[in-house]
Amino acid sequence: MTNPARREAKGPRWAVWELTLACDQHCAHCGPRAGQRRPNELTTEECLQVVRELKELGCGEVVLIGGEAYLRNDFILIIRAIREAGMACTMTTGGLNLSEERAAAMIEAGIGSVTFSVDGLQATHDRLRGVPGSWERAFAAMRRIRDAGGRIASNTQINALTRTELLPLFELLADEGIHSWQLQITVPHGNAADHPEILLQPHMFIDIFKTLEQVLDRCEARGVRLWPGNNLGYFGPLERRMRNSQRKHWRGCTAGVSVMGIESDGSIKNCPSLGGGNNIGGNWRVHGVKKVWEESYQLGYIRARTVDDLWGYCRECYYAETCMAGCTAAAEPLLGRPGNNPFCHHRALMMERAGLRERIEQIRGAGGQPFDNGLFRVIREHADPALRELHGPVAVEEPRVSRAEEPFGAGRTLVL
Questions:
Q1: 257-299 residue pLDDT tens
Q2: Which range is the signal sequence, renumbered to this chain (predicted)?
Q3: Cys staple from 145: which of 64, 96, 150, 178, with CB 3.0 to 4.6 Å?
Q4: Torsion angle of C-alpha atoms 46, 47, 49, 54, degrees rounded to 10
């Protein structure tokens, strides 16, 4: 039975496809904990059928990710099939072993743009990526794509290690000729849940956005498009400038609305940065793309959300009905369920105005599975150190039970 309250499911604008979980790096912030292939990854023919079904569903662009997509021997065939189906095809990569031959073949097959993940300056990047020399090899791979006639972009995770390096890093990336720079925060899932020391504290957003204002100035001066990730915002004084390239303000999470994720074993989910039973609606081998997209609760629940699904500070926020608590992939791994998100510029500003600040504290670790998470609490306290020492926490928002632990109510539809 289909939920009558949900909006009609139009085809996704983007499908972000983890082509393989095999990876040649060991990133401290990797959500899927990439390294080894998943058991029973899709075969070449199965991948080509997925491409056909994405086309039939009306998908506009397929973004190939991993692990490392180029570690599949058939990744060029899949790029070519996507392009021949009339969809755009891009790739996000660390570039460690993106050889000249691979780069040339990707361009010949029709790849539209290649986005290189570069997290901070050389020492920071190599530390986070777990491979000495990975920073230099990423820049070398950028040049191979560019020299082969391709277009290059970059993405960077903002965390406790990289937040002070954004401006000098941008100049180096701009010198290489990137057309766009995506910025996103590191979220506490997968490997990052095992390294809470690299996570941002919510009160850091005040200084981070002062830096981002300078970054925007430099992007405009050098003709590079800034593309904020869905977990970076929301509704502070920089919102309009930050999302100018997207020609919109933040209007709520897009998981299952305009984007879908596909894991390399055929699991279909609402967001490429989420996993597990809360977010996987079914497997392609059992149901196909269309049925999971249109009928599963996991891919459809965000289409039908209301402010009554929000909780904590976000429920009472002035922007609640528009923002809907920001990015699900930031909130759910932090507090166990979406609907309350302290990783917010506006929220940090409101706290500062009241003489307060927020910080997160891990109370449970993760279990070692792809996209798993621990649990954190949000501690609200005085910004003044003396008052903080005297009074302790002003308020504490504890994590809430996940949706997977709740009974399914009337109108929820699952593909089984």
A1: 999 999 999 999 999 999 988 999 999 999 999 999 999 999 9
A2: none
A3: 150
A4: 140
